[in-house]
Amino acid sequence: MRKIAIVGFKGGIGKTTTCVNLGAALALRGHKVLLIDTDTQANLAVSLGIKDYKTSLADVLIRKVSAQDTIIPARKNLDLLPSSLKLFKAQQRMVLEMAREEIFDELFAGLNHNGYDYQILDCAPSLSLLTINSIVYVDEVIIPVSMEMLALSGAQQFMDYLKEIGRVLGRSAEIRLIVPTMYDPRRRVSKQVVKLLKSLGPRVAKPIRVDTQLSEAPGYGKTIYEHAPRSRGAVDYARLTETVASLPPLVPSNNSKPQPTVRVR
Ligand SMILES: Nc1ncnc2c1ncn2[C@@H]1O[C@H](COP(=O)(O)OP(=O)(O)O)[C@@H](O)[C@H]1O
Ligand SMILES: [Mg+2]
Question: What's the pTM?
């Protein structure tokens, strides 16, 4: 089982889009996938067309329900642990808890025995305790970067931040992939940003091209494979999914945690 967080310091860089469509493509390939929304904006449920759910991560955080009981089947092989606006308030209580950076480890422990092949966490673009918990809980992170210079510096800052978490907490996650998003081959800045990304160190995936179908799909509560299966976005996310699936897992299949080391490549 692989645990991956989709992270980045900037909003609007394609984190949620990547989470939904990578998750959907893995599910279509027959993997059992759980998406966990840790962003107070709760975009994953909307993107998947799920409304009127009663409990969310906010209720799990205040120990009102278990993570298990909050999971909603979204598609074949694709489950969702949704967020809600209430998460904003619930996260404030995290500050007062013991081992507050490892709360997800405790709350999600039961999920490791659910037969999931992948748990994918969508993160907020902030330095909140929710984000720190996500990084500590997962083994791998994927950083989407949109084709702007500011997004590039956001990625660099995030890499430094991961190192800092590793230094302070003695454990962190490995950056498996940087994913260029909203790539427009006609714009020089796209090529410049990708070139600079390649000098950062971690592996850079083939870009996700800019595609209006990708931005329209969430409005219909659909994944790109349901909304426009022949679109550029569908092709690019399928290719990204192949890349992600072909990366060797970092932890043995008995789900034990990796050694507490920082591994930023
Ligand atoms: N490759 C793309 N082409 C066009 N629009 C995109 C693409 N990726 C994401 N978008 C759109 O850009 C906006 C921000 O993306 P989103 O995934 O929500 O970013 P984040 O989660 O990082 O804030 C959304 O409206 C989304 O639909
Ligand atoms: Mg988002």
Answer: 0.94
